[in-house]
Amino acid sequence: MRESGDHVVIWVARNGGFSGKDISFLKEFSAEMRALAARNVDGSGASLWNLLLNYYLPRLQDYRGRLLVKVQEHRQTLNLIGNEDFKHSLKLFFDILEQPGGTNEFGRLCCQALQIQDIALAQNLVQTEFKSGSQRQLWKSIGFLARLRRAHRTFLKISRTPLIFRSIKVHPITKNQDEITSIHSPLTLSDTLRLLDIRPSRLNQTTIQRYVSSTCSVEKAQQIFNQRQKQSLQVHAELQIIWHLARTHVPIENVFQYMGCSKRSCFLCKAFLNSFGSIETRGCHGKLYNQWSIPAIQRIELTMKERLEDTVNRMWDILLQELHKPLQTLAALSESSNGTTPASSSAASILIPERPSEKTKVEKKKFDTTHIRKINWLPRYVLVDCPMVTKSLALTACSRPAARRLVPPILSVIDVFRRENTISSASGEAESARAILLRLISPLL
């Protein structure tokens, strides 16, 4: 977001890009916010609420459908609750849930969900009285439904701020048609092992069991690896915004140094933002995605080109730090930021990658307090399939699922930045790592 006097520009991006419906909604939303700021409409924001409700209706229907499947089981939870206010509010929620699903009922459901969350002791009651997985899922669903009404309340508060949003423009960032969507000449599993300085005489079952999986055959391991290499590359929303600002020559220092995200940032996005500057997000869930990508870009100023190049260098330093750290078991953290407050909250910040040149004291302290146990790093135990890390092969020395988080993402980096066949000779292998990364990214800058 950039503010200049009473003029505000907000850039928005989505991982998968925007549809025509999305763009129409953003235009209407901008108009509603301008009208509210100018006091040209009902101060209760009824028109804005209807706009939000209709746009999010398909998602609300999905939440309601999931709750209805277990509504009778959820109603049994009422018998376990001792607090009368909480119990009464939850009963009203179930009553509305079981009514026919019209737009008005969805609106009431969202309002009731927020009322439940606003109960002073609600969070403590959930911690003490919601024990089962089904009960925790119920609370999570209530949070998702309440989020829309909370957003409406926040928008109203913002619109009443003096001189803010008198002239507002929400600018959706469209996906670059020239964006690279697939890996050119992707690495094979053998090439990847060799690039990581693992040099088996041939790819055999012993190699697979030691470095890849204890259960996969050679053929199966190669098949899974090749399938992942064929997946489309993705430019995450955080990077889309940075690249758009660079393309349009908007100084990063002139924008608000915070990106509001519906989800926590992935490990590589957070590492990029930390290395690039001081832009904060909701937090970092710590997962790795092997199709994470940096987009192509042309016609940018030399200073920005140098800054992006320096960011890539810093990112690589972060990845090298992770490679040499002992494997650490961390508490799981969901991608969704539902129910969290700003990035300073402990729940939202425990997995933020550190900058290579300095230790972030507060985050480091939070990071250390999440360690359940530490395992000595076994530098040659690599390429273990990690189901908790979506769509990625990660480096780890432990087979326990709880330990398969925030692991050194060297393979992800190779997958990401691999745009051409760079392994053709011994000299090509020696180049590897940082040189390959910089050489491949330079044409894009």
TrEMBL record:
One Pfam family hit: OTT_1508_deam
Source species of the chain: Lentinula detonsa
Protein name listed in UniProt: Uncharacterized protein
Domain of life: Eukaryota
